[in-house]
Write a structure and sequence with these properties.
Length: 262
C-alpha cells in the first residue's frame, strides 16, 4: 500500500504530503505515526529550514477517520481522550514547538482536526476552492487540535463561536478576508506559491525566524511586561547569532546576505 505520508526534501525545504486521498486524508493511527516521524526529522535535521504541509488529491484533510468510531448499539463508546492525548495533542505541540516555519498549503477541504491542524501552522496558504469546516458539532463533538484556542485568536470570539456551532464551510477567500489565513490563491498557483514562500524562508536567517515564532506563541499567554522581558532575552540570543552578524555586514557592504540558519 502507498505510504500514508509522503516526504520530499530539497534546498532546505521538507514537503510533507498527507496521502490517504481516497479517505480525504483523514487521520488514522498509521498516518499520525508517519506524520510524527516526518516532523521529528524536521526537528533534528539542521539542513531542513522550512516545512510545507499539504494533502494529496482533492482534500487537505477531513480530520479524524470516522470509520472506526462507530459505536455499536448498546456497546461501550470509544474513549476519545486516548487518540487526542497520544496523537493529536503531540502533533499540535510539535508544530508549535518546531523552531522553523511551517507552511500549510491547503489544497482542498480542511475539516475537523484537519482544519485546526492547518490553522496551527505558521503561514496558511489555501487554494481558492478550499474550504475550512469546523465539522465537529455536526457529530456531537467540539473543536479539538487547538481549535477552541486558535480560532478566537485568529477571527475573534463572535466568528469563532459561530464557525464552531454552525459547522458551516468557510471558503478560502473569506478566510483570507477574515484574517484566518494568510492568503487564498488560484488553485493552480497553490503549490508553486507555497514552494516559493518556503524556499525564501529556508534561505532567510532561520534561527531568528524560530525565535519570532516562539515569541509570538508566548505572547498569547504572557502579559505585556513578561513579553518585553522575553523580547529582551530572545534579542540577546539573536544578537549572538552568526546570521545576525552576516545580516548587518551584508547590509553595510550593500550585498546580498548569505544566511546559514545558525
Ligand atoms: O475520534 C477522535 O479521536 C477524536 C478526534 C476528533 C477529531 C476530528 O477531526 S472529528 C471530525 C471528523 N471529521 C468530520 O466530521 C468530517 C467528515 N467529512 C465530511 O464532512 C465530508 O466528507 C467533507 C465535508 C470533508 C467533504 O465532503 P465531500 O462531499 O466533498 O466528500 P464525501 O463524499 O463526504 O467524502 C468522500 C469520501 O471520503 C467518502 O467515502 P466514499 O463514500 O467515497 O467511500 C467519505 O465517507 C470519506 N470521508 C470523508 N471524511 C471522512 C471520510 N471517511 C472517514 N472519516 C472521515 N472523516
Amino acid at each position: 500500500a502507498d505510504a500514508p505520508v509522503l516526504t520530499e526534501v530539497g534546498e532546505g525545504v521538507l514537503t510533507i504530503t498527507l496521502n490517504r486521498p481516497d479517505k480525504l486524508n483523514s487521520f488514522n493511527v498509521e498516518m499520525h505515526e508517519h506524520l510524527a516521524a516526518a516532523l521529528e526529522k524536521a526537528e533534528q535535521d539542521d539542513a531542513i529550514r522550512a516545512v510545507i504541509l499539504t494533502g494529496a488529491g482533492r482534500a487537505f484533510s477531513a480530520g479524524q477517520d470516522l470509520s472506526d468510531r462507530v459505536t455499536p448499539k448498546d456497546g461501550a463508546p470509544p474513549d476519545l481522550t486516548v487518540t487526542i492525548e497520544n496523537y493529536y495533542n503531540p502533533l499540535l505541540r510539535r508544530i508549535k514547538a518546531l523552531p522553523k516555519p511551517v507552511i500549510a498549503a491547503v489544497n482542498g477541504v480542511a475539516a475537523g482536526a484537519g482544519a485546526n491542524i492547518a490553522l496551527a501552522c505558521d503561514i496558511v496558504l489555501a487554494g481558492e476552492s478550499a474550504k475550512f469546516i469546523q465539522a465537529f458539532s455536526k457529530i456531537g463533538l467540539l473543536p479539538d487540535s487547538g481549535g477552541t484556542w486558535t480560532l478566537p485568536r485568529l477571527v475573534g470570539m463572535a466568528r469563532a463561536k459561530a464557525l464552531a456551532l454552525l459547522a458551516e464551510p468557510l471558503p478560502a477567500v473569506q478566510a483570507e478576508e477574515w484574517g484566518m489565513i494568510w492568503k487564498a490563491v488560484p488553485d493552480d498557483d497553490l503549490i508553486p506559491a507555497a514552494s516559493k514562500l518556503a524556499h525564501d524562508l529556508a534561505r532567510a536567517p532561520t534561527y531568528g525566524l524560530g525565535l519570532i515564532k516562539q515569541a509570538m506563541e508566548a505572547a498569547a499567554t504572557n502579559d505585556f511586561d513578561a513579553q518585553l522581558d522575553l523580547e529582551r532575552d530572545f534579542q540577546g540570543r539573536a544578537g549572538r547569532s552568526p546570521d545576525y552578524a552576516e545580516g548587518v555586514r551584508a547590509f553595510m557592504e550593500k550585498r546580498a546576505a548569505e544566511f546559514t540558519g545558525k
